[in-house]
Amino acid sequence: MVLDKKLTVSASPHVRSSVTTTGIMLDVIIAMIPALIAAVVFFGPRVLGLTAVTVITAVLSEYVSRKAMKRHGTLGDLSAVVTGMLLAFNLPATMPFWMAAIGSVVAIVVVKQFFGGIGMNYVNPALIGRIVLFVSFPTAMTNWVAAGAWHKGGVDTITTATPMAQLKEVFTGGNFDKIGEIVEPGLGEMLMGKHGASLGEVCAIALIIGGLYLLIRGVISPIIPLTYVGSVALIMLVAGRGNLQFVAYQVLGGGLLLGAIFMATDYTTSPVNPKGKVIFAIGCGVLTSVIRLYGNIPEGVSFAIIIMNILVPHIENITTPKPFGTPKEEKAAKEGDK
Amino acid sequence: MAEKKTLWHELTKGFVSENPVLRLVLGTCPTLAISTSVTGSLGMGLSATLVLIGSNFVVSLLRKLIPDKVRIPAYVIIIASFVSIVQMLVKAFAPAIDQQLGIFLPLIVVNCIILGRAEAFAGKNSVLASTIDGIGMGIGFTGAIVLIALIREFFGAGSVAGLQILPESIPPMIIFILPPGGFFVYGILMALANRLAERKDLPPAELQSCEHCPMSVACGGRFVDQADNEKEVKEA
Asked: Considering only residues 284 to 323 of chain A, which have any Cβ-Cβ distance to chain B shorter than 8 Å?
């Protein structure tokens, strides 16, 4: 019988989850490693230096600002490391180290710690870091080098246009037939990573591997990445007048996969409910497409995610499930008040 | 009555504890628009201070003659006449600053610091106290806008009052002279001013209600509630 076993009496909680913030962040770091390796292969060892600078600055800023505000230390949850890595993923390989460090400080101090630290930031810290750098140092932030150029001779020697700028050319000119001539890298090269891009977005395959790892580990739900990429693909299909090649370039190019898998799925700045997630992701997709097609800049993923981040509290507000049986009474009561 | 101490208080309250820009959040528009350069800010601060002293003086002088119902139009006419005087003076003696300030110089007429002080202070207090209040608030406004401009111009253009300080090889962070950078610097300085004012054991600025904040659904007004609760606990 059950009673044969010794009864243990203890206070609740009796069932503990093994999921911790540190564990989740560690999973995200592991998921980013394939993309980091790809970046080192395509852009050379300087990538490791750049990533080290952003990560170390992020961790230091977190430590110093927590100390200065007399709050308990939060280095152990590894979230500062993730922010640092994500920021590095958003930079071109030629970015001067000191500029990258400024981005980390802005991300951690201004966006995260000023608002209360982990779980309290209202937008994605790494993305604001990227946008501040992009607005402040436009030339350094768009100094793209061709992937693999470092084998031939210094990274600084060969700069190139990103496929995103060339895609815009295709759209504004309406030359969908000549897409293969205007856009330099082929679709296979886009998938493997042989084109000018920022560190994290260069290799689509590595990003997808990381995303699959996160899905299998249960860290992210597939709703946001799939809806986000799907809505961009759908809009591009219409905008490209049914040209599938145009759609494929739009999905593989730029920061879309990086943003959809690693940035838009951030717990703090995305909705909780599945319905809210769908609204959030469609909003990201529409804004990204509109900026890519009609904006002054070739890429809009970071701005789209930031704008939707700000709207998340409102999305949560309208998608909160109502307890069974209550809605009608509440409505009647409200109308009665008027 | 400790008249002397009160007057000293009327002068210094505008510096930090009731700083019009950083604590009362008045005059935000000219502050953000002008604070991209130190010289422009100094010009703006001094012009507004002159208008403020003059209008506080006259409003206080006429406070018993102005009927309550038409006081706002009366205040605006008084302020507008001082703005016209200052505008002509600036145009005549500092045309460069007039160029830099542009539309914001005549717009001092509707600057809420000046109207706010007329309404909140000069309309109720003696001529001497009102004039001193005007001087203190003017110094507070000038100090805050010049401080913001120092930070924004140094980081955003690498110069201070037009003098290049950072070497050309270091590209300045352009975001500082753009509107978002202005908001960042403004917000951080506001936090510092709140901190300083709290240290002086002065009562904290009254928090606005959360109803009008578009983000109140996110926090549910819990920050204000918390502050209220703490107050109640302390009082009890």
From this structure: 313-314, 316-317
* pLDDT for residue A157: 46
Chain A residues within 8 A of B191 when measuring between CB atoms: 114
What is the average pLDDT across A225-243? 91
Residue B183's closest chain A neighbor by CA? Answer: A110
Rounded mean pLDDT, B38-59: 92
Of B163, B113, B120, B171, nearest to B140 (Cα)? B113
Put simply, whether A172 touches B (Cβ < 8 Å) is no
With contacts defined as CB-CB under 8 Å, which chain B residues touch A303? Answer: none
**Mean of all residue pLDDT scores within chain A:** 84
Helix (H) or strand (E) segment spanning residue B163: strand B163-164
Angstrom CA distances, B133 to B23, B53, B127, B143, stand at 16, 8, 10, 15
| pTM (predicted TM-score) | 0.81
How far is Cα B41 from Cα B36, in angstroms, rounded to an integer?
8
How many CB atoms lie under 10 A from the CB of residue A54?
29
What ipTM was predicted for this assembly?
0.76
DSSP single-letter state for residue A145? B
Please name the residue of chain B whose CA is at the shortest distance from the CA of residue A110: B184
Which chain B residues have a beta carbon less than 8 Å from that of A123?
Answer: none
Contact B137, B113 (CB under 8 A): yes
Residue of A nearest to B215 (CA): A313
pLDDT digits (tens, 9 = 90+) for A122-174: 899 999 999 999 989 888 888 777 766 666 554 444 556 677 877 887 887 77
Is the Cβ–Cβ distance between A159 and A149 less than 8 Å?
Answer: no
What totals of helices (H) and strands (E) does chain B contain, helices first? 10, 2
Burial class (CB in 10 A: 0-12, 13-18, 19+), B61: middle
B189 vs A102, A261, B143, B149, B193, CA distance in Å? 19, 36, 12, 12, 6
Cα(A168)–Cα(A182) distance, rounded to whole angstroms? 10
Q: Can you tell me the mean pLDDT for A32-52?
A: 90
- Which of these, A236, A90, A253, lies nearest to A161 by C-alpha position? A253
Q: Pick the more confident residue, A1 or A295.
A: A295
Output the furthest CA–CA distance in chain A (Å, rounded): 81
Q: Residue A66 in contact with residue A113, Cβ under 8 Å?
A: yes
Least confident of A110-114, A241-245, B176-180: A241-245
User: What percent of chain A stands above pLDDT 70?
Assistant: 89
- Asked whether residue A178 carries a pLDDT value surpassing 50, the answer given is yes
Contact between B218 and A122 using a beta-carbon 8 Å cutoff: yes
Residues in chain B: 236
